[in-house]
Amino acid sequence: MPKIELRHVTKKFGKFIAVDDLNMVIEDRSFVTLLGPSGCGKTTTLRMIAGLETPTEGEIVINDRVVFSSLNGIDVPPDKRDVGFLFQNYALWPHMTVYKNIAFGLENLKWPKNQINDRVQQLLDMLKIGEFAARYPAELSGGQQQRVAIARTLATGPKVLFMDEPLSNLDAKLRMEMRAELKRLHRETDSTFVYVTHDQLEAMTLSSMVCLMKNGYMQQYAPPLEVYRKPANTFTADFVGSPNINLVEGTVIDGTEQMIRLTEGIVLQFTSEKTLGLHTGQAVVLGLRPEHISITEHASLVDATILSSLPSGMETIVALDMDGIRLHSVVFGDLDFEVGKHVGLSFSQGLFNLFDKVDSNNLGQGTLSKA
User: Fold this and answer.
1) What pLDDT, in 10s, does the model give residues 329-355?
2) Count of domains for the chain
3) What residue spans of 155-222 are helical by DSSP H?
4) Do 250 and 331 share a domain, yes or no?
5) Over the chain, what is the mean pLDDT?
C-alpha cells in the first residue's frame, strides 16, 4: 500500500516561490489535510503529488517508486501514478447519466460490461445514490452531484484520493453531512486521502494529520488535536480554533521564576514542567484558549468587565476587558451575561502556551497563577 514522501520539494512560478523546500511523509491509509489561507501553496502541493504540476526541485515518492525527481529527470504522468483527483467543481459530464458518469473511466480501461455494472452498483450503494442512477447532473442537488463525483473518482480503485476543497460549494448543513460521509468513505475504502481546505474546522474533524502552510512554508505537521493543543507558533495558534485563541503580549520580569507582566497591574507566574530558559526583559506572547478562561462571580485571579455576550444555546461567547486587554471566553451551556458587569477570571483549566514574540515560536506549555 502507498506511502507518499516529499523530499525538498520546491515550486517556483518565475520569481514567485509557491512551495519552498517541503519535506513530509504521508503514511498509508492516513487522511492528511493541507490547510492554510489562500495562496499558501496547498493546492500546488496537491497538484505536484498528483502529477498535474511539475515541481522545480525535489523528489516525490509513492509506494517506494520515484514518480518525480528533478535530479534524475523522472516525471511519471498522472495516469500512471494510481491516484484519483476530485475537483472543486465536480466536472461531471452533463450529457451523461449518473450511471454513465461513474462507468466512464472503467469503459476507457476496457473493463468487461458485467464487471463495470457490478462496480457501479457497489459505488451507487456505498454513496447512497442508487435512486439517481438514471438522472443527469443538472437534475441533482449540489450534495448529490458531489457524491457522484466521489463515486466516479473511486471507480477505478485508486489507492490515493486527492480532493481540492470539494465541499466549498455546499451549504453549511450539507457540508456537515458530507464531512461525516467522507470520514466513513475513508474507513471503508482503505485508501489514503489527501485533502485541501482553508476551513480549519474541516481539517480538525476529518484528518489524521494536518499540514498547516503559510507562504509556501510548512508551519506544523501533526495530528489535529496536537496542532490545537500545542501550536508550533503564533500563526498556527491563531489559525486553528474558533473562536480564535487570545494572544496576549507580555514581558518577562523574572526569568528564573517565569514571572510575566501583562499590564502594570497584572503579573502572572507561568509554571511549566521544564525550565523554558526565559530571560528578564524578554518579549513574549501568552496563548489563552477561550474555553480555558472561566468567568466567576467572586474574587479570582484577575478582574474583568463584560463587553458583550453572544449566547447560541450550546455555548456563549463572552467578550471581556481585562485591564485594557480584550479577551474572549467560551462558556458552555445556555447562559447569558450582563454587559458592563464586573466579574473575576480564572485560568485554572487546561495548559496554556507561551510564545517568543520575536520569532513567534512556541517556548512551552504551562499553568498560570497570580504572582
Assistant:
1) 999 999 999 999 999 998 878 889 999
2) 3
3) 172-189, 200-206
4) no
5) 91
Is-contact 39 217, C-beta < 8 A?
no
| Integer CA distances (angstroms), 221 to 1, 282, 286, in order | 22, 28, 22
In this predicted model, what pLDDT tens digit does every residue of 203-261 receive, in sequence order? 999 999 999 999 999 999 999 999 999 999 999 999 999 899 999 999 999 999 999 99
- At 368, the amino acid letter reads L
Distance CA 243, CA 4 (A): 34
Contact 88, 164 (CB under 8 A): yes
Q: Which residues contact 158 (CB under 8 A, 6 or more apart)?
A: 82, 83, 84, 191
Distance from C-alpha of 132 to C-alpha of 206, rounded to nearest angstrom: 27
Within a domain: residue 370? no
Q: How many H helices and E strands in the chain?
A: 8, 22
CA 48 to each of CA 5, 56, 73, 81, 151: distance values in angstroms, whole numbers, following the listed order:
12, 10, 15, 12, 23
The answer to whether residues 147 and 188 belong to one domain is yes
Model pLDDT for residues 257-290, shown as the tens digit of each residue: 999 999 988 999 999 988 899 999 999 999 999 9
Residue 42 belongs to a domain? yes
